[in-house]
TrEMBL record:
Signal peptide: none annotated. Coiled coil: none annotated. One of its GO terms (biological process) is photoreceptor cell maintenance. This is Similar to Ttd14: TRPL translocation defect protein 14 (Drosophila melanogaster). GO terms for molecular function: GTP binding; phosphatidic acid binding; phosphatidylinositol binding.
Amino acid sequence: MEQKRVYKVVLTGGPCGGKTTGQARLCTFFENMGWKVFRVPETATVLLSGGVKFSDLTEEDSEFNFFIT
């Protein structure tokens, strides 16, 4: 049985840093090489679309506790 490799690429950066654009370009590049590409949306996008409002978190460390639990 042929063993397949899985490569992981993580894009980091601040708001409007080009992460989404870079993700799309990398996806196109590797798909054109014949690779299967799986993409995951930005965490903030997932949380915000799920109803999380960071402005509603009032305690100083509540954002930290939110992400840990």
